[in-house]
Design brief:
Helix content is 68%, strand content 11%. By secondary structure, it is of the alpha+beta class. It has a 5-stranded mixed sheet, with helices on one face. It has a 4-stranded antiparallel sheet with strand order 2-1-4-3. Helix 1 packs parallel to helix 3, helix 2 packs antiparallel against helix 3 and helix 8 runs antiparallel to helix 9.
């Protein structure tokens, strides 16, 4: 109750009072000649509209809730008018609720972008519906029937327009509205039978008609508040197929029995009836498959069209939509219960519900790389993939794989950029710490020592000289600290000796585990002097780390390193040895550091280890991306 505003509370109380008055009127009419079936129908449907309307107004302030409340008040007033002797007015209120207020409530669930295109038909619904109510109140049955048929046609046109003009979540809401109208259709014939029946049977039939009509407020509430609670397309398809199959089975049995009576003149014996039932059961499943395909064609546009599906999916991909949107488009095109996109054991996105239904799997490949798998749920009673569906999946798998691969690359790029930023910030933190904790105090001491020497220069020259000698030592330490910081940013040997010379100098001091110096044969015949600074540092760090690993783990004292400029242009760095590892390689800090440095400048690192040696190679693009 805390969520209800004061106006909503007043509306609930007013509706409750009206409903109580209507119920009292029905109780009073129980001892009169008033047709109870109509009053019971109005009271039951009015209660459903009141509940759905008030819930809708609390959660969503659209016009649907208010129109449902207005319909409930009109239906509650009907029994009161009947008891008061105003039967004509009661008919008018009932007709206006059925043909105007409730249809408008369902149609207001969605607001198409081109509202002007539906405004004229909505206005026609109001005009024709009110005219029908006036004809009913005036006791003009023929005019009421004709106008009622016209009003129903207007509602059908308005619903069809909204279906064609909506997409996505709004299309799903329109489908709920259509389902509500379809489920309410049987209430009309049942009500006609009740009108020509008396006694308790009329009351029972009125209850059946009322329960069928409750689909209207229920559909409005679900469409407005929880359109994804279940897959409405699957509900429509299964309900329609089930109803048609029951009707076909009953009609087939009745026709077969009537044919036997026509031929023989007698009712068929029990054996013949059993044969008829067996025949109907034998043909039930094949006929149901054909009926399902026909229903899909009528409700959802027929068989899956590969080109049309590819066009829809292409528009989704071009718009930069997310994987759930891709799958929604694909599931709707295939009319499948559910579709899922997986990478290994990870579910990236789903649409619909796979449940326990059998599934068909399509591998998604971008070139030679396996990037994921597309899973499509099949009907539980027909676990075969239609040829049209196979054509669609084979056609859309390529762009879907490319899009998924691009999404993976984008995520990898985001992670890589994050790692680069983290590394940069860590380097800045290290520099700040080195400058603040190391160089800062040294320079501060130099400044204080210079002040002290200046103060003692005339009064105590010998002590001032001692301070100046100490000051020189402090300045030398500061210079050494600055060099250490600078060399940490970029090795000094790269500027003095170049890439190849710096690597040779650094690895000349490497020793193997048994104390021997590591002999490295360096092959670099091309000019490396014009390499970008970032390429030089990455290649230097990678080569030195790889040769350090050779000295530590290979068990041999010889290795080779080659530096080659290839087309691209790229710098190819290769380090090889002829040793062997006693255990399998496990990525550690060294390998992770090499890979990170190479990938930060857009390169790739490959490692191959075997019984006859190991090879570590890197390809680094020379023209780095901006």
């Amino acid at each position: 109750m805390a969520r209800l505003r004061r106006s909503s509370l007043v509306g609930v109380l007013a509706t409750a009072v009206a409903g109580g008055a209507g119920a009292a009127a029905v109780w009073t009419a129980a001892v009169t000649t008033v047709p109870l079936w109509a009053l019971i129908w109005q009271l039951t449907v009015g209660l459903g509209c009141a509940v759905a309307g008030h819930v809708s107004t609390v959660v969503d302030r659209r016009a649907t809730g208010y129109l449902l409340i207005l319909a409930a008040l009109s239906l509650f007033a009907g029994p009161v008018m009947v008891v008061a002797g105003q039967s004509g007015l009661a008919r008018g209120l009932w007709v206006s609720a059925v043909l105007v207020t409730i249809p408008l409530a369902l149609l207001r669930v969605v607001q198409p972008r081109r509202a002007a295109a539906t405004r004229w038909v909505d206005t026609s619904i109001v005009v024709v519906g009110l005219a029908t109510a006036v004809a009913g109140a005036a006791g003009l049955p023929l005019a009421g029937v004709l106008l009622g048929m016209a009003s129903a046609a207007m509602v059908a046109v308005a619903t069809g327009l909204r279906f064609e003009m909506t997409a996505g979540e709004d299309r799903r809401r329109v489908l709920w509205v259509i389902l509500g109208f379809l489920l309410a259709v049987p209430s009309g014939p049942v009500a006609l039978v009740a009108a020509n029946t008396t006694g308790g049977l009329a009351v029972v039939l009125a209850g059946v008609a009322a329960i069928s009509s409750l689909s209207l407020p229920i559909a409005a509430g679900v469409a407005l508040l929880a359109p994804r609670i279940v897959d409405v397309r699957a509900v429509m398809q299964r309900s329609t197929v089930a109803a048609l199959m029951v009707a076909l089975a009953a009609a087939t049995y009745i026709e077969a029995e009537a044919a036997f009576v026509t031929v023989t003149g007698d009712l068929p014996p029990i054996g013949i009836r059993v044969l008829i039932v067996v025949g109907v059961a034998a043909g039930f499943h094949p006929v149901m498959r054909w009926v399902r395909a026909s229903v899909n064609e009528m409700l959802f546009g027929g068989r899956a069209d590969p080109v049309h599906t590819l066009t829809l999916l292409g528009s989704r991909l071009a718009a930069g939509s997310s994987p759930p949107d891709w799958l929604d488009t694909l599931r709707l095109a295939l009319a499948a219960p559910g579709v899922a996109l997986r990478t290994g054991e990870q579910v990236i996105a789903t649409s619909g519900d796979l449940g326990d239904a059998p599934t068909a799997h399509t591998d998604l490949r971008a070139g030679a790389a396996h990037v994921g798998e597309l899973t499509v749920a099949l009907a539980t009673d027909d676990p075969r993939l239609a040829r049209a569906t196979e054509a669609v999946l084979s056609l859309v798998s390529v762009p879907l794989a490319q899009a998924l691969h691009a999404a993976h690359l984008t995520e990898d790029l985001r992670v890589s950029r994050g790692q680069a930023v983290t590394a940069l910030e860590e380097e800045r933190r290290r520099m700040r710490r080195d400058l603040h904790d190391g160089l800062g105090p040294t320079l501060t001491g130099i400044a204080y020592s210079a002040d002290a020497a200046a103060n003692l220069l005339h009064s105590n020259p010998s002590q001032a000289l001692e301070i100046l000698h100490a000051l020189r030592g402090e300045a030398r330490d500061a210079i050494a600290e600055i060099r250490r910081i600078v060399y940490g940013l970029r090795p000094r040997a790269l500027d003095e000796l170049g890439l190849v010379g710096a690597v040779q100098q650094q690895v000349s001091r490497l020793r193997t585990a048994d104390g021997h110096f590591l002999t490295v044969a360096v092959d670099a015949t091309q000019d490396m002097s014009k390499l970008p600074a970032a390429v030089e540092v990455a290649a230097y760090r990678m080569a030195v780390e790889a040769l350090t690993n050779v000295a530590r783990h290979s068990g041999v004292a010889e290795a080779s390193a080659s530096f080659t400029l290839a087309d691209g242009p790229v710098l190819r760095v290769t380090v090889q040895d002829r040793g062997h590892s006693v255990s399998a390689w496990t990525p550690g800090i060294g390998i992770a550091s090499m890979r990170e440095r190479v990938e930060q400048v857009g390169g790739t690192l490959r490692i191959h280890a075997g019984t006859h040696g190991a090879t570590v190679s890197a390809e680094i693009p020379i023209h780095l991306p901006a």
